[in-house]
Amino acid sequence: MKALRNMLLILLILPIAASLASAKDIKMSVNQTEYYFLVGEQGAIDIEFDNPFNIPTEGMITYTVTQETNQGGMQYSSTNTQSQPFTVPQGEETITFNFGSSDSPMKSTVDLSFSYQDTIIELNDLEIHFVQEESQKQNQENKKKSSKKKEPSQQQKENQKRQQEQQQQLQEQMQQMQQQMNQVFQNQQSPQKVAQQDAQDKVQNNQMAQDSSALKQQMQQQLKDQEEMKKAFQENLGNNQDFQEKHKELLEQGYNLKSGNLDPTNQTSGSFELNYEKEGETASLKGAMEDNQLTDIQKTSSEEIKEAIKALEQDPRFQKHNMNLAEQQFTPLKPEVEQDGNTTTIKIPYENKDNQTATITAKIEDNQIKDVKLEHSGKRRWWIWTLLTALLLITSYILYKRYVKKNTENKKDKPNEKPTNFRKEAKKILEKAKLLFKNKKEKDAYGKAAEAIRFYYSHKLDLRTELTNSDLIKLLKKHKIPYEQTQRCLNLCGLVEFAKYNTNKGDFNEIINLAVSIIK
pTM score, two decimals? Predict the structure, then answer.
């Protein structure tokens, strides 16, 4: 009887113990399953953790983010998984996770899991929407709790550990690549920053710049925005998987990143070119990215080019063409190599002592020589050149008689025209600008001031043609003429003309004074 009572007691206790054991798990929960943010905002989600243990619990948190965007009627999807060590505090705690932002409408799906000891808890299918308008937000409370995943086997644990190690290694490689890119582009930008600082120092030392603080702030903000856009484009490029693979291939071949150039149109689009070196050999990565998707990427190296030319030299078709050209006393020149994806085009030009030319063109696809062609200019007969020369001389004589001589005679009949006093004319235009400003026509006044500067330099450089602001600055740089003051004047005038800057008398007087100092 006593044994029966003990057995019943055990049967009653087992379900309770099992229930208590199952209840003693860490739980994650959220107040809603769909989150809406405006474009540009941070996609931050509050995750509630409930840790029933008496101490903080260490483990590994993993989140997978799948992004879906629509561009030009096409749907693009990309998935990114990251894992990192994570400690859940004791008791109940709300922790905010930031899943980034977007500069365009987009939907992201987040799967979150936390593994500790022999347990994995999951919180899946959380949706993040980035929308354009406040009215598109549809945030509604919809509580969701985590679920417990079946305890992994030893093999699964080893696989998970291996994946985490690979993920950690990949993250370290990405960080190293970003550091290399930062170092390369910071070194390239330093001369520009020095030049900008010199220009700012000149502005500060100029007594006439007392009322130009608003313009300086605006120009400084523009430079800051450009630097931030370039930095964001660099980070997005470095996070692109296709780019990472190409970069990794070059690193594994022993190349080191030495220089580069980025030309972004926004944070996620633009073109790029990176240059690598190793022991006298060179390589490059160049291409274009649009909305974080690589539309073009080309990897070239001097080693690959040498190997391609070496393989071509062993091809019987090339040897035949090369021998024929050698018999005709043609000499090979420097090869030209173009790469497009898996296709390499090699062009080897030839020339002889009579300036005749020929070209051997070959295409290599997937390391296989597909096509070898010879393009020959043919023999140029001496009598053709003699005939062409005679025709050219006759035509030149007729044109001389008809136009040149006639124009010379007309010039003799006309009195010498007085050269334009362009400085005086430029000053007249400035006086018109002053009068326009006085009559409350500020926009026209700034336009006239810019016109006076462009007119002056157009005649000073003996161009006598209409110039745009950007054309003028390029010419001044080309002729090594100081351009900082001129650029400041034209920039301010341009901002006023396009209604991007409010006029004031102090700035206008500064523009006039600077223009007068330019037109001496």
Answer: 0.38
* DSSP string computed for 92-135: EEEEEEE----SS-EEEEEEEEEEETTEEEEEEEEEEEEESSGG
Percentage with pLDDT > 90 across the chain: 2
3-state secondary structure 27-89: EEEECCCEEEEECCCCCEEEEEEEECCCCCEEEEEEEEEEEEEEECCEEEEEEEEEEEEEEEC
Phi (first) and psi of residue 129, to 5 degrees: -115, 130
- Could you give the count of Cα atoms lying within 13 Å of 23 in the half-sphere of its Cβ? 6
Identify the CA nearest to 259 among candidates 281, 276, 282, 279.
276
Helix or strand run (H / E) with residue 275: strand 270-278
Residues of the chain short of pLDDT 50, as ranges, are 8, 10, 13-14, 16-22, 72, 189-205, 207-210, 379-382, 409-419
Contact 489, 511 (CB under 8 A): yes
User: With contact defined as beta carbons under 8 Å apart, do 188 and 259 qualify?
Assistant: yes
Max CA pair span of the chain: 144
Structure confidence by residue, pLDDT tens digits, 132-181:
888 888 888 878 787 776 556 666 667 667 766 766 666 666 677 777 77
Instruction: Please list, in sequence order, all residues whose beta carbon lies within 8 angstroms of the beta carbon of residue 142, skipping any fewer than 6 positions away.
Output: 31, 32, 33, 34
DSSP reduced 3-state for 141:
coil
Residue among 193, 245, 250 nearest 224 (CA): 193
What does the alpha-carbon distance between residue 448 and residue 493 come to, in Å, rounded to a whole number? 9
The span from the CA of 26 to the CA of 50, in Å, is 6
- And the tokens for 471? 């054309």
- Type of residue numbered 385: W
Tokens 């034209």 belong to residue: 490
Which residue's entry shows tokens 């509604």? Answer: 140
If we measure between CA atoms, which residue out of 85, 30, 95, 29 comes closest to residue 57? 85
C-beta separation of 146 from 65 below 8 A: no
Tokens of 377: 């200019």
Nearest to 112 by CA among 30, 169, 54: 30
Q: Give residues with Cβ within 8 angstroms of 362, minimum separation 6.
A: 312, 315, 318, 345, 346, 369, 371, 372, 373
Paired tokens of 433: 């600008």
Is the CB of residue 436 less than 8 Å from the CB of residue 444?
yes
Q: What does the alpha-carbon distance between residue 408 and residue 396 come to, in Å, rounded to a whole number? A: 16
Distance between CA atoms of residues 494 and 289, nearest Å: 31
Helix axes 422-438, 442-460, angle to 10 degrees: 170
Residue 121 neighbours by CB under 8 Å, 6+ apart: 25, 26, 27, 28, 113, 114, 115, 146, 147, 148, 149
End-to-end CA distance of the chain: 122
